[in-house]
């Protein structure tokens, strides 16, 4: 996790500031060895004052040591302070608030039940609702305490909502839109909430307002009692977070990540960021080269900006024998959750996901298309997107090694949230962005944001070193030929077919899977869309087509994967140094096509600044310290 340090900005205790400054001075004077400093800084869950039941539960899940945000936030939350915590994606913010929240409720358990839940966790999407609900549920179960958590989403029938709330749960996980709906349906009573509410958490706060929840949040805040402790968790800062802070919190402690220096880095340092410059038409060719020549580590999450593009990519890759699954906002919720579960369980390696904020663009594209056949299809098939859908936002994808931006995201925040799907907690990862000339301006904006004011020229996103131009060109003929066969009509038809299948599956199988949860494994989501199997000459790329350097890169990636498989330990916890040193096995960090050692901060002599793959650049690839 790097040398993260949290510095409370407001409402700081003087002695703590001193402690921070003391370490800083010693570091400047070179008096503190890095290892020692780490020992001194790190606190255990016991030292944070966490209940032994919670510590045992965490240990059963392989979580032994708090992350920096947990170390800093937990004591403040236990003290009853309002907290604004900003920490990178994947830094463990969920447990940072859930652990103290549960501990506070432990002391109340056994007392008379309140008329409404006393803890609300508000998240921007249904997927996150499910994720936070699962997290809190396993904690409650393993702690064996008499607490009940429920999740509510706007799509639930009123009767289900009533049933869920009938057991007088202490914890409610929901989206801001759902609460006014509950008021309107008479499922929740505002007066009862004012009487009961003790803790309100706004998770992924930077996204709540961008999701259009402002009015919903206002109607919630109007009934939040003054005594209620409010927590605001976020991965980035924005005017939205400030707005929410003012709207809901009282004199909060503001915790902001500082890593190594005063510079704030929103992307975890254990994620290596790369880019490839190519024309929009050549993106299919480049992604084919990345996946087919196996120069990126699996599992891979590929982001595209429209659902149609997702299907185009799926159909294209399928012809080369590369199976992918698709996740988007028009799929039924059951299917989406199931796809996420299967991907996390490792049932398939490639997932193509749409961003949630591209619905408008998608609609515009549908409007602008005057093809007769498409019009016919459109009549039959009206995409209905779920407003509470959120793939990128806060979802804890497990063991994603590579994030590929096939299309560049529309904003810096979008980029940060996408990239944050890898390098979660103590694992490492990498990202590859395919940047066309039309996307260059946005890309430059992202780069300069990540580099920060003082460090404008530093290359945080470096050219991808493991793909030579020759290797890419060797696939051009096949790629262009296959790309032509993926027509607009075939895309529309596949999309409609996939949706129909998922709806049927979702409805038909819902009750079956409730009764037979094990059968879920049988339903694979990365199945083929086209009726014909990929032809052998496309499925297996002959060796003579791939140059020696790319072959070596591919071999290294495979070796690293094998090594990681062998070293895999049980559980996700612990930040032992051994575990961190696994990053050294990632060829994107250590690969050297010429066999010589790479110097630190070499900054790519022979490596084209424009991101175009160059074999010469391999030996001089800038080494990012992790
Ligand atoms: N102390 C810990 N040790 C090891 N793993 C942890 C620890 N705390 C949390 N994790 C794991 O780290 C992963 C990321 O955690 P979490 O989803 O809370 O991150 P986050 O900061 O909320 O990220 P995002 O901003 O992207 O939502 C999860 O799989 C979680 O189980």
From TrEMBL:
A motif (Q motif) lies at residues 43-71. SMART domains: DEXDc, HELICc. PANTHER family: ATP-DEPENDENT RNA HELICASE RHLE-RELATED (PTHR47959), DEAD-BOX HELICASE 56 (PTHR47959:SF21). It comes from Brassica napus. It is an enzyme of class 3 (hydrolase). Residues 43-71 form the DEAD-box RNA helicase Q domain. Signal peptide: none annotated. Residues 74-255 form the Helicase ATP-binding domain. Keywords: ATP-binding, Helicase, Hydrolase, Nucleotide-binding, RNA-binding. Residues 7-17 have a biased composition (Basic and acidic residues). This is RNA helicase. CDD domains: DEADc_DDX56, SF2_C_DEAD. It comes from the Eukaryota. Residues 18-40 have a biased composition (Acidic residues). It catalyses: ATP + H2O = ADP + phosphate + H(+). Its EC number is 3.6.4.13. GO terms for molecular function: ATP binding; hydrolase activity; RNA binding; RNA helicase activity. The keyword RNA-binding applies. Pfam families: DEAD, Helicase_C. Residues 1-45, 561-626 are annotated as: Disordered. Belongs to the DEAD box helicase family. DDX56/DBP9 subfamily. The keyword Ligase does not apply. Residues 289-472 form the Helicase C-terminal domain.
